[in-house]
Amino acid sequence: MPVVPMKELLDRALADRYAVGAFNIVNDLTIEAVLAAAVAERAPVILQTSVKTVLQYGRSRLFGIVQALVEDVPVPVTLHLDHCPDRAVISDCLAGGWNSVLFDAHELTVAENLRQTTEVVAEAREVGAHVEGEIEGIQGVEDGVGSDAAPAVYALDVAVDFIKHTGVDCFAPAIGNAHGQYKKAPTLDAQRVSDLVAATGVPMALHGGTGLSDAQFTDLIARGCAKVNISTALKESFMKSGAAFLADAAARDRWDPPALFTQQREAVTEMARRHIRLFGGSGRAW
Predict the structure, then answer these.
(1) Known catalytic residues?
(2) Helix, strand, coil share (%) of the chain residues, nearest 5
(3) In the chain, what is the straight-line distance between the N-terminal and C-terminal CA atoms, in Å?
(4) What are the binding positions for Zn(2+) 1 in this chain (predicted)?
(5) Sequence-separated (6 or more) residues with CB below 8 Å from residue 147
(6) Has 166 been labeled as part of a binding site?
(7) 242 is in an annotated binding site
(8) Is 134 a known ligand-binding residue?
(9) Domains in the chain, start-ordered, CATH in brackets?
(10) Which end of the chain is more exposed for a tag (fewer CB within 10 A), N or C?
């Protein structure tokens, strides 16, 4: 199946109250692994790229890799740019084939964020792409973006006004979630998700998914979190499986790169399959 619009994936998920896993890939191996998980589970999936990964590969080269790997994949796939405060990178990715972008302008005033996000939405519409928005930062640093300081949380009507006036297709609320591993079990404002969905009909994006309990995932998805971001868990699966393999290789003085890649791919695939099942995405491909 060809790459499909983000809005189509998320509107279906919101209507049936499941979530599409959005996995922050870091290279071709992790792309292959996440796609293999989606195919095995017959699930739609979102390949997410950080600004750091886009700049590391170059937009054109990274898109070429993704395009080649999704060409024969028989499940719906979307390519999304995660937290990006740089309008130039936003424009470059939209022009270069990305289906969706998160314009992260939470450090601006709400009024300026609204103004610029409206412009990004118009720009995205010109190429048939979609936009995720936010007005509050998600605590924690991910791929060099963010802050460990607790974000300011705006009144519900401010968030509702932002969603309605910008025309964003998805919104990332701050509900006590955080990027990276949680230092203690988070206390989440789940009701805010319900209230935002009821007021706008727009699907919510859950950031900081790694480390939440199964019960928290299930509750938030039922309330309208139709997109769930998984980044830290992917990086940990990729690197810890590699570290374990290399430790064993050193002990035995046997060096086999293809076997290393196989172990890392299997670890990431299993991690992604586990999350897809938990999010209710299995069997939702069309």
Answers:
(1) 82
(2) 50, 15, 35
(3) 9
(4) 83, 179, 207
(5) 137, 139, 140, 141
(6) no
(7) no
(8) yes
(9) 6-239+270-278 (3.20.20.70)
(10) C
